Amino acid sequence: MKDALSGLGARSRRPVKLSRTELVTTRLPEGEDCPLILEPRVEGLELVQWAGENRAYLEEELARVGGLLLRGFRVASVDGFADFVRATSGAPLPYTERSSPREVVKDQIYTSTSHPSDQEIFPHTEQSYNLTFPQKIYFHCVTAPTEAGATPITSTRRILRELPRDVVERFVARGYRYVRNFGDGLGLSWQEAFQTQERAEVEQYCRDSEIDFQWLAQGRLRTSQKRPCVARHPTTGELAWFNHATFFHVSTLPEPLVAHLRSLYAEEEMPNNTFYGDGSPIEPEVLELLRAAYLRARVAVPWQAGDVLLLDNMLMGHGRQPFKGERKVVVAMADPRRWADVVFDGPLPA
User: Fold this and answer.
1) pLDDT 10s digits, 177-187
2) Are 236 and 121 within one domain?
């Protein structure tokens, strides 16, 4: 995986292009096609005001490139980050149907996933398993780690292009099924995932969200939801590989953990697992193809304090490298989009 911002010193800088406001320069990392790096041409440029006045320009570039890195604007606080989100998208979205532990910082601004610092987080698109998902996801680096800890971004358009056609056709036709088991002390509890203590509220959410549910012994809960795998982008019309079939499959976890879980649980009893939409297992060789496609498409974005990274969630997945030192990155989600409006059910173009 390439480091997107390596070699950006004086010797490797290419001529910059002025934005239409002539206040911001834009460039791509050496040898990469994302993210688009925007930096102020004049010291003290106020990001929120500039972004609000140039929202259409940002939307256009985001749809074209998939990710924007705003660097050097001195976003010094979570409040400033929240103001930027509102200036470019409106109010941030709540984190519903949770799959990872996060803490609320304030007003729908969350910490990034609480995950051991020595472990990698595999690339994924945010909440693509929800019937309504965020079109945009924002990251703000409050404290940069002392070592590593970049956020790799992954083009879902490239993944789709590089997958074998017969594999894509299979997933388009069959979809995938995401199965969760709550209550064994691994992963989130159903109370945390659904943000309620009431079973009736969980049941209603599941009915509204086309999720099958089953209450098991000792207060455990199993949910199962069939979801599409390919989406058509509402602005560009391009197709994107947009799903959690790879991320939530048990075999994507580190091998020692996979072996341990399989010694304890059947495949449908795992805390998280995925299948084809009809419930049949996804072949190991297909999962290897999928993981390889994600990893080939990664571009690492190292953090500097004050950075803001804006991704089109349909066009760009994200992950996390292991790191050392304190690392604080906060997250916001925005612009709700319904699967019903973007689902692609074939046939694939020739």
Assistant:
1) 999 999 977 88
2) no
Average pLDDT over residues 159-187: 96
Cross-strand pairs, 138: 310, 332
- The structural domain count of the chain equals 2
Phi, psi of 266 (to 5 degrees): -75, 165
Q: Is 335 left (phi over 0), alpha (psi -120 to 50) or beta?
A: left
DSSP character string of 9-66:
STTTPPPPEE-TTSSEEEEPPTT---PEEEEESSTT--HHHHHHHTHHHHHHHHHHHS
Do 205 and 283 lie in a common domain?
Answer: yes
Distance CA 232, CA 125 (A): 14
| 348 within some domain | no
Question: By the 8 A CB rule, do 1 and 299 touch?
Answer: yes
- pLDDT single digits (tens) 209-252: 999 999 999 999 999 999 999 999 999 999 999 999 999 999 99
Residue 231: which domain range?
161-292
Phi-psi region of 244 (alpha: psi -120 to 50; beta: other; left: phi over 0): alpha
- Is this prediction's pTM over 0.70? yes
State whether 123 and 227 are in the same domain.
no
Q: Are 241 and 232 in contact (CB under 8 A)?
A: no
Examine the fold and report which residue of 292, 307, 325 is the final residue of a domain before the chain moves on. 292
Same domain assignment for residues 185 and 129: no
Check: CB of residue 303 under 8 Å from CB of residue 144.
Answer: yes
**Measured on CA atoms in the order 100, 162, 227, 94, is the torsion positive or negative?**
positive
Claim to verify: residue 288 and residue 303 sit in the same structural domain: no
Q: What is the b/e burial string over 195-211, where b = at least 16 CB atoms within 10 angstroms of the residue's CB?
A: eeeeeeebeebbeebeb
Closest CA to 26 of 75, 74, 65: 65
Residue 349 lies in a domain: no
Residue 93 DSSP class: P
